[in-house]
Design brief:
Layout lengths: L1 H19 L5 E2 L10 H16 L5 E8 L2 E12 L4 E2 L6 E2 L4 H14 L20 E6 L7 E5 L6 H6 L29 H8 L17 H13 L3 H13 L10 H4 L6 E3 L6 E2 L3 H5 L16 E2 L1 H12 L3 E2 L2 E2 L3 H7 L15 E2 L4 E2 L15 E5 L3 E6 L4 E6 L2 E4 L2 H14 L4
Parallel strand pairs: 1-3, 8-18
Antiparallel strand pairs: 2-3, 2-17, 3-4, 5-10, 6-7, 8-9, 11-12, 13-14, 14-15, 15-16, 16-17
Helix pairs in contact: 2-12, 3-6, 3-7
């Protein structure tokens, strides 16, 4: 009898734990319900509205939730400065490198289906990457004259997802026409297959597995999804990730009705006023052109509430909206340091699979919990996922370059944690 009761108790606790994982978001009755101070959260409003009033930022969207309860979901400023269109919480932002986590989830689903293993060479699926070369030197006056050597090993799936493959954004040789590829999007009739085949001809910046080199790694991962599934990346992501999780406003290219909610993109250099970005593609790629290129590491656009679902999916260890896409063990693996003694730039943080991990001596996380996870996008969007405190926080704008973007991101995260009283 005691054994039967013990087994029943284990099952009951497991069922209770599952039930407590939020499958959707709902507003908290008060922030205090989930441990926040209303007065301290209101300080965030004052700070962000101040940046809007001073003309430093055009619009800002925020989303903060704990245990599935929303405590801060607001919009400040104007989605289009010239028209003084008030920003709304359902505005659509270019999320750029936040596309990486979505692609990572999609690829790891194939890992769980037995399509590959993490330390398998990607050349088994993309032969053009076999026997990679590492750049040794080049002629400063004639960059077409460069020297390479054989890499010490093959690029693996683990290298791609941890940014240790040695594949930077810019070619290590510099701006040679033979190595030129679109940065993240193109209005031209070009496919991901064409881009990745060209990328495979570039020399690497370092041996696979030796250094953290942020770059086009997840874009290669996106092409691997296409090869393994015989589907276009955007079709796979929509059917296997976005639809099950209820991401109704996250796409590579926007329909006409959604395009009306796309915010403007601006630039802001220190001591200079905001101005519309000079790069036409930055404005138009989600709504114009051939709409053929789907990069795995950038190019998606969506609402802040949509991406909060991705964050909660990670908090829930692989399920949301009543749909399980990844096993808990796989999500836990994403949260483990995969870069050894290397660090993410000068932040002193680590990187797992698709996610930066705040270290105890982080130079970026401020008062955030060590072990919390994050990443952001080129146009100044960022998310933080805190498993220990069961919390997710996001802040979005669309400005690049953004001289004061860093301080806004730091202040926002610091003030959210300062408003948490338990």
């Amino acid at each position: 009898m005691p054994k039967i009761f013990s087994a029943f108790l284990v099952l009951l606790l497991a069922a209770t734990a599952f039930a407590q994982r939020p499958q959707s978001f709902s507003p908290a009755r008060t922030p205090e319900e989930v441990g926040f101070s209303t007065e301290r959260l209101n300080r965030i409003d004052t700070m962000l509205q101040g940046y809007v009033n001073r003309g430093i930022v055009p619009s800002v969207a925020t989303f903060v939730a704990r245990k599935g309860k929303i405590v801060h979901y607001k919009a400040f400023g104007y989605s289009h400065l010239d028209q003084k269109t008030p920003a709304k919480t359902d505005d659509i932002y270019r999320i750029m490198s936040q596309s990486k986590l979505i692609t990572t989830i999609g690829l790891l689903m194939l890992l769980e289906e037995g399509k590959f293993y993490l330390d398998q060479p990607i050349a088994d699926f993309l032969p053009a990457f076999r026997n990679p070369k590492v750049l040794v030197s080049y002629d400063e006056k004639d960059r077409s004259r460069y020297i390479t050597r054989p890499a010490k090993g093959e690029i693996t799936f683990r290298h791609l997802l941890s940014h240790t493959a040695g594949i930077p954004y810019e070619s290590p040789v510099g701006s040679l026409k033979e190595f030129e590829i679109p940065f993240f999007a193109s209005l031209e009739n070009i496919s991901l297959e064409e881009v990745i085949n060209k990328l495979a001809t570039r020399p690497l910046a370092s041996d696979p597995g030796e250094q953290y080199v942020y770059g086009l790694n997840t874009d290669v991962a996106g092409r691997l999804i296409e090869v393994m599934t015989h589907q276009k990346l955007s079709d796979y992501i929509q059917a296997r990730v976005c639809e099950p999780l209820g991401l109704t406003d996250t796409w590579y290219y926007l329909s006409k009705d959604r395009a009306s909610r796309l915010v403007g993109v601006y630039s802001q250099e220190r001591d200079m006023p905001l101005k519309p970005h000079a790069h036409d593609v930055f404005h138009t790629y989600p709504v114009a052109g051939a709409q053929k290129l789907n990069m795995g590491g950038a190019g998606m656009s969506g609402t802040i509430a949509d991406y909060a679902k991705i964050c909660q999916f990670i908090l829930n260890k692989g399920e949301f909206n009543g749909k399980r896409l990844l096993a808990p063990a796989t999500v836990e693996m994403m949260m483990v340091n995969q870069i050894g003694a290397n660090h993410v730039w000068d932040r002193m943080d680590k990187f797992g699979l698709g996610l930066q991990i705040f270290s105890p001596d982080s130079h970026y996380g401020d008062n955030a919990t060590p072990g919390a996870l994050l990443w952001g996008g080129y146009f100044c969007t960022e998310y933080t996922i805190d498993p220990k405190r069961e919390m997710t926080l996001l802040i979005y704008t669309n400005v690049q370059p953004f001289a004061q973007g860093g301080e806004i991101l730091h202040k926002f995260r610091t003030m959210v944690y300062a408003a948490l009283m338990e």
